[in-house]
């Protein structure tokens, strides 16, 4: 059995998700062709879990990369675990399936393995990803997330999505879904920002208690040029504690940060468009952090968020994935 299979987690609906995934969101300066090449390289390295979204505007390229690797015999469709997400402008129940069908057409795939509500904040439907008023403020929509979830359940029933879950939800928002009368399917996962500076320990404990997998984006921190990133945060991969543990194990700080999540039972998304880094980030399945290492890494928690978009701050469901 391959190490990829060994590092899969069983979801609460019976499907399996590889615990190490390849993230594909990219700043605008990264050419879409680079995303396509990176996904093909990642498949060659051994990645089988790919995370994207309607918002990322790269699903055509990712779909092309996956289909090329299927065509050359590198993988079969059932070997690949692909995640997409419904954006806030599609959270009205009647629009959820429409969004998924748009993604599937771009991908030229018949189903996604996992479909997530990207953010717990409905936005005004339309062509604009971030609809704004004349003052530059986001235009929110009024939608019951429980109604959105019922539409997600229908996507699962239709076979267009094998599993369904959420992203950027805090405990209260998760409870809203879990306590919904007539709930048919629980979310299989909650994808949130999570790294040693924001270890989400309380949210992780809550998710585990309800058999919901926590998935970590920004597992390596983030230093990219996206406009919604906080600019003045310390660089996670330069942390002296992280670096010392990495040196002891003869690994890189990135490898230790990813391994930390796997040993906590958290699915980790690694993102890079450089071949050497793609390969390096995958080499986290063959070493073990000690209990002392894990304790030291736990102690780094500072509740630092790299992803903070002030445009969302007026919404009552902000901040997302709050520890409370």
From TrEMBL:
Sites annotated Lowers pKa of active site Tyr: 85
Superkingdom of source: Eukaryota
InterPro entries noted in UniProt: AKR, AKR1C, Aldo/ket_reductase_CS, NAD(P)_OxRdtase_dom_sf, NADP_OxRdtase_dom
MF annotations from Gene Ontology: oxidoreductase activity
Residue span, NADP-dependent oxidoreductase domain: 20-301
Residues annotated for substrate binding in this entry: 118
Active site, UniProt feature: 56
Keyword Transferase: no
Keyword Plastid: no
UniProt cross-references to CDD domains, sorted A to Z: AKR_AKR1C1-35
Entry keywords, A to Z: NADP, Oxidoreductase
PANTHER family according to UniProt: ALDO/KETO REDUCTASE
Family classification: Belongs to the aldo/keto reductase family.
Designated name of the protein: Prostaglandin F synthase 1-like
Organism: Lynx canadensis
High-level lineage: Eukaryota, Metazoa, Chordata, Craniata, Vertebrata
